[in-house]
Amino acid sequence: MITVYAAYNVPFDGRGIVRDFRVLWALEELGLPYDRQWIDAGKGEQRIDPNRAISPFGKIPAITDGAFKLFESGAVVNYVYDKAGKLPADLESKARLQQWMFAALNTIEPPLLDLLLWNLFWKDRPGRDVRYPEVLEVCKTRLAELDKILDGKHYLLGETFSPADILMVTVLDFGRIEPSVFEAAPRVRDYLARCKARAGYKNAYAKHLAGPAAKAA
Asked: Is the pLDDT of residue 50 over 50?
């Protein structure tokens, strides 16, 4: 059975955005059984064993599946969908899916993560008055571009919910710290609401960051 190395006691309101949520959501969508190995992030347990033995950079999430070990949220989400037989079979469809998974992590996430960091942890950092408006503008540009892409689409691939949507929604949620980034992106706002209305999202959200006192999945 899959064991997710999941965080609790994080030093900010990280529910739904700490990256292990992506894995929990994928598992809930797929209905795969799993267990959790709770990692106290407030004490830095992610940087020591047993997590460090799986995740060499000391990050969350990581998983074990029997003797198999895997880290990086995008890789883990892809793995569990593949394990469940839910990835496309043909080459072009698989590439199209991976295109959007990589776009979420490589194009949309970096500026939105910067935005989150400047708001939560870097408020007193020198140069914020210069850098923050630049980051904010990049975020607005990316969301405006995504808004156009979502025209006429329920999800990134059309009518079919996919692991790319899990990654994209959790990335977009970094922007909740600065609601103005969504003002000119109504389709993105609707897309977020639509994805968050799914049972898999709600089930994962209820369990996220719950800690060792939580009931088993």
From this structure: yes
Instruction: Give 92-123 pLDDT, tens digit per residue.
Output: 999 999 999 999 999 999 999 999 999 999 99
pTM of the complete model = 0.96
Q: From 168, 186, 157, select the one nearest 97 (Cα to Cα).
A: 157
> In Å, how far are 89, 92, 119, 182 from 24, measured between CA atoms?
24, 27, 26, 26
Q: What domains does the chain contain, in order, with CATH numbers?
A: 2-86+200-207 (3.40.30.10), 91-198 (1.20.1050.10)
Place of tokens 């969350």: 60
- The span from the CA of 166 to the CA of 196, in Å, is 10
Quickly list DSSP for 165-179: HHHHHHHHGGGGGSG
* The Cα angle at residue 200 between residues 212 and 107, in degrees rounded to 5: 95
Question: Where in the chain does DSSP place strands (E)?
Answer: 2-8, 34-40, 62-65, 68-71
| The pLDDT value given to residue 217 | 44
The whole-number pLDDT of residue 215 equals 59
The mean pLDDT of 149-171, rounded to a whole number, is 97
Residue 6 tokens read as 């999941």
